[in-house]
Amino acid sequence: MKNYLFLIVFIANSLQAQSPLRLKLTEISRGFTSPIGIAAPMDGSNRIFVLEQGGKVKIIENGIRLEKPFITISSKLDGLNIAYSEKGLLGMAFHPDYKSNGLFYLYYSAKSQVAGMDHESKVAEFKVSKDPNVADVNSERIIMTIPQPESNHNGGQMEFGGDGFLYIGLGDGGGAGDKHGDEGNAQNMNSLLGKIIRIDINTPIAYKIPIDNPFFNTKNVRPEIWAVGLRNPWRFSFDRATKKLICADVGQNKYEEVNNIEKGMNYGWRVMEGNHCYNPENNCNEQLYKGPISEYDHSEGVSVIGGYVYRGLEFPALHGYYIFGDWNGVLWYLKQNSNSNDWVRGPIFTEKENNEINGKINSFGQDEKGSIYIVTQKLFGPKSPTGVIYKIGF
After folding, report:
1. How many other CB atoms are there within 10 angstroms of residue 91's CB atom?
2. Fold of 23-393
């Protein structure tokens, strides 16, 4: 009898947890050229900064898009294929003390200085000018340069953790199947590619290694590494309440995944694609790797886009929901079960036709008050002036 009661309760909880979440999408601003991210300075202004793939950062202030860019680095970029490109201005993070020091960081694709490489990813520090809405483009200080063998899988997400250190997501170097060396870049501990790294930029030199990084004193391992075995971590974020680092990792042919990133863990790529063997195709030892908190196959989407856990004050009923989606325009949520700690995935229904965004979801964003935004563009390509920003709510 107890077993039957347990089964009934389990099924009821599962059905409840996976019920649709009904949200309203409010258009905030439009007219962006291939927007691929949002950053917030946490300086009391509640401005949001929209990254355009072609090298500009635009400001939305009090609901109005400012015409003058905050910064333009287009001349620093490697060329973007007009039809499709994963290169460009890909990430932005404001220093935790931005209000007092005016420092921020950009991740962008530059021309290669190394023979045989397609391009190189640069992490650079900049400073705001005397005008709070305009940066000093000449203040650039290069923090890190990472050679990239292929044009795709460049990652680019950057976030400061509550520890004050900068976390950076790097793809596996591109191509298909991570065919870089005997084991692939993502499992190569001498490579930063296919990893999330953690560095200390509060130094006059380029950067320092935090002494509590998991491989700080490990021989033949890059000490910057925080987590291993990722294919293309396209957007991660810290839950402001629990401090969990949640990362969406774009899959290969069959599966998309979301991971809870923990110190020193190996998430399996290219041995695993989600919870499934990839290389070798069979008989891999999945016990060696940490599995995702959620996955879905390509009958539901094509490329996972990471989001945020809602912790704002405007919609208390949304607290604890991780809002994310797929590039094809579908939205989902993840919610952690308070009894089992498992994460369950459910659909998000909107007033949009077929509950889908009218266009592609490129990214998500969060302002200093905890509101969550969706970054979209209607038409395909890295130079498309069809970008629209939505805010989620009820």
Report:
1. 24
2. Neuraminidase (2.120.10)
Q: Is 359 helix (H, G, I), strand (E, B) or coil?
A: coil
Helix%, strand%, coil% for the chain, nearest 5: 10, 40, 50
Among residues 128, 93, 96, the alpha carbon closest in space to that of 107 is found at: 93
The C-alpha atoms of residue 32 and residue 359 are separated, in whole angstroms, by 13
35 pLDDT exceeds 50?
yes
As beta bridge partners, residue 373 has 365, 391
**Euclidean distance between CA atoms 151 and 52, whole angstroms:** 18
Q: What torsion do the CA atoms of 205, 206, 212, 216 make, to the nearest 10 degrees?
A: -100
Listed as own residue / partner, the contacts of 379-382 with beta carbons closer than 8 Å and 24 or more positions apart are 380/83, 380/84, 381/34, 381/82, 381/83, 381/84, 382/34, 382/53, 382/54, 382/80, 382/81, 382/82, 382/84, 382/85, 382/87, 382/88
**Domain positions in the chain:** 23-393
| Angstrom distances, CA of residue 225 to CA of 108, 248, 266, 306, 354 | 20, 18, 11, 21, 41
Residue 10 CB-half CA count within 13 A: 8
8 A C-beta contact, residue 166 and residue 201: yes
Q: How many whole angstroms separate alpha carbon 194 and alpha carbon 206?
A: 22
Q: Which residues contact 130 (CB under 8 A, 6 or more apart)?
A: none
Structure confidence by residue, pLDDT tens digits, 288-308 = 999 999 999 999 999 999 999
Query: Which string of DSSP letters, residue by residue, matches 301-337?
Result: -SSEEEEEE---SS-GGGTTPEEEEETTS-EEEEEE-
Round to whole Å and give the CA distance between 92 and 123.
9
End-to-end CA distance of the chain, in Å?
41
Residue 21 CA to residue 391 CA, distance in Å, equals 15
Question: Tell me, what amino acid is at 297?
Answer: D
> What number of residues does the chain have?
394
Per the structure block, which two tokens stand in for 185? 């870049």
Q: Are 208 and 200 spatial neighbours (Cβ–Cβ below 8 Å)?
A: yes
**What are the pLDDT digits (tens) for 240-269?**
999 999 999 999 999 999 999 999 999 999
CA 276 to chain centre: 22
